[in-house]
Amino acid sequence: MSNLRRFAFPVFALLMLALPALPVPDFWITQSNYIGLYALVALGLVLLTGVAGLTSFGQAAFVGVGAYTAAYMAVTLSASPWLALLVGVALAVVFALLLGAITLRMSGHYLPLATIAWGLALYYTMGNMEWLGKYDGILGVPTLKLFGADLGTGRGLHVLIWLFALVAALGCANLLDSRPGRAIRSLKSGSTMAEAMGISTFRYKLTVFVLAAVLAAVSGWLFAFFQRTVNPTPFSLTKGIEYLFMAVLGGVSHVWGAFLGAAVVKLTEDQLQVLLPKLIGSSGNFETIVFGIVIVVVLKYAPDGLWTFVVRKLPRADRKRDWEDAAPLPARDKPAHGELLLQVEAARKQFGGLLAVNDVSFEIRGGDIVGLIGPNGAGKSTTFNLITGVLSLSGGQVRWRGQPIAGLASRDIARHGISRTFQHVKMIPEMTVLENVALGGYLRSRSGTTRAMLRLDRAEERQLFAEAERQLARIGMADRMHELAGNLALGPQRLMEIARALCTDPALLLLDEPAAGLRHKEKQALGEVLRQLKREGMSLLLVEHDMEFVMGLTDRIVVMEFGTKLMEGTPAQVQASPEVRAAYLGTEH
Ligand code: ADP
Ligand code: MG
């Protein structure tokens, strides 16, 4: 069975490319052409909407950009179709960059709205421009010729359409299984964790938006030579919604879901167009209504799309462990023992009327293990967020090795070697433990989107996975690396976060309640890991509720209450302090 996965793609690709040579009726070749064209667009939406969580209703408009460029350049300018492909793709990139730059920094709803506006605007532009033939469009597009052979609009073009679709699918599948791909897959879970690992979430949102637009434009370019005429109708908002429907129906987070969705929609649409008028007795666009109902049903009963039903039947393929002899990732020069690392100077954070952190100061030197304790709501996590740039300071300063870092983006602070875990575990549940931990190695690696799509990133991937496994082994979780992170219990998830933070090769590690939710044995193991880190010279700032745990581990403890620093001292001093006792007893009763 495990061979099924390996051979599925080559067999499918071969079948689709050879289809025109087989005794398949013309009707089915035409259908297959449509499916290939639609799948290209849906593929972009799988990445954009399914994987990255960004919804676009405007993909049909990008198809239109590709199609109109092809038709206009072929008919009016008699230009080479290959030049038209370049120009169409370039135009789509420019439009996507403009649209993305304006909306992708804003919260989630602006992009869907902007894509609706873009879809409508382009539709009316195409319909009203004299030079684009208004609503009649551009007629008489010639057929494509390749190496002297006329591809026509049927069997010949089928090969080209499916070549594009299959190569695109392979590129997208490669991308998802890579360093930039993991960054893209992290977009859906909010930006805090990804940014803390050094990922520019804006950049990757823009990347997938542009990529989806390019795939749509390529589909449009092919469409023009397939239909040999273009007019605004196939590029309307309605069509944009239909593309989204294909991606959702097929399987929003699976590359092959795009093909399944495109096929199911195209084939049922044809059936419905014949069947519905017969049933209802009058003609109209009834299939739209039926699709509307179907989409509601699918979202309710198969929110991940139809492809999940196929995936469930396939054996799970663990990643082959091919990284044993990989070279280590680059590591940073570690700070010297006793070197002044972090200075928190009168840090202050105000949430409206609430003073969550009130002029708190302390410092951490190389090799220090500092505890940060205090009752619930004392401001410990907020202090973490101020240090790591998740929140901006209302006052005060934070310095790293003498340099002010307040105001820097979270990902730039990560670059300095400050890494952290979160009180409420932040991870990508549908990625394996290994992949989650490999996210920590993001800043120590460099492969970009193009390299990943072309599969030129494998050597670095091996390095990343070797490092991720090494860090997992360090916390005793190497045997669980292939499990889905979302299937782990809370304790192991916390440990996984520590491994991910260690994977960044930090100079200072901030752990927010690492022992919360851990069983006694796990807690002891964690204590041992932290002591080992201490022996290696790692500097740690540790928020913890379990007094016993902090007492045995830390050199110094900072106590906070109601946002204010109550005292700082050795574990013994803190334990003996009547104020600390009062603070804890006072809130616990
Ligand atoms: P601790 O980690 O010590 O339990 P926190 O730092 O999480 O405490 O919270 C300190 C105080 O700030 C709490 O009263 C909390 O409700 C408040 N707080 C934390 N984050 C926010 C936020 N983003 N907006 C408003 N209030 C917040
Ligand atoms: Mg907290």
Question: How would you sum up this structure, described in words?
Answer:
The protein has 589 residues and is an alpha/beta fold. It has three domains: 3-236, no CATH class; 339-417 and 507-522 and 537-589, 3-Layer(aba) Sandwich (Rossmann fold), CATH 3.40.50; 427-505, no CATH class. The protein contains 23 helices and twelve strands. It has helices at residues 2-18, 26-51, 59-75, 81-103, 110-128, 155-176, 179-185, 192-196, 201-227, 237-251, 255-280, 286-301, 307-313, 380-387, 410-415, 433-439, 449-453, 458-474, 490-503, 520-535, 547-551, 571-576, 578-588, and strands at residues 145-146, 149-150, 340-351, 354-365, 369-373, 395-400, 403-404, 418-420, 508-512, 539-543, 556-561, 564-569. The strands form three sheets. The chain has a six-stranded mixed β-sheet, sandwiched between helices. It has a four-stranded antiparallel β-sheet with strand order 4-3-6-7, covered by helices on one side. α1 packs antiparallel against α6 (155-176) and α2 packs across α10 (237-251). The chain is elongated, with a radius of gyration of 28 Å. The termini are far apart. Bound molecules: adenosine-5'-diphosphate and magnesium ion. Residues 351, 354, 356, 374, 376-382 line the site of adenosine-5'-diphosphate (ADP).
